[in-house]
# Entry
Amino acid sequence: MARFSAFLDANVLYSMTQTDLVMETARIGMFRALWSEDIHREWTTKLVEAGHDPQKIERRRLVMDSAVQDALVTGYQPYMESIVLPDRNDRHVLAAAIVGGANVIVTRNLNDFPEDAVAQYGIEVQRPDTFLIHQRGLNEQLFLQCVRRVRRRLRKPKLTPDEYLEKLRKVELIVLAEELEKVKSLL
# Structure
């Protein structure tokens, strides 16, 4: 199992396009993914409120939990009171990241986790685009295999490499899409 650990904020798990790629890189061991029941509650609630099928969402949650062993962080609640963040509702993210031994929190909301609040715990904060670019840099061949596998799993509709790259751009994985554009024949 990978030693480098990333705690995934709920906003990383809303988009299926983004989630698929992040989960595939975790599943094959490029990094150790971490989340909590609070994270599950946040992303599932948001998707249900947006009108998505609750049964499909629950199935997705169960697949995530079974695809990546030991991802679910527990026992972090007692630490939440001592954490100071701009938004008190985000304290559970940092507390779970600390208890889980995360090296990085992957989130779209960098402002919610100021460097002075998280660095003292030896944790960085990165956007999904940055995090995935770093994963690619660590092992390009393995990362490209993940991208290829994720793209080829898409059946409804089946996507060409160009269409898949456009989907990545739409979920704000812009730098990653631009980098993959250079090797799209391998996707």
Summary: The chain has a mean pLDDT of 93.
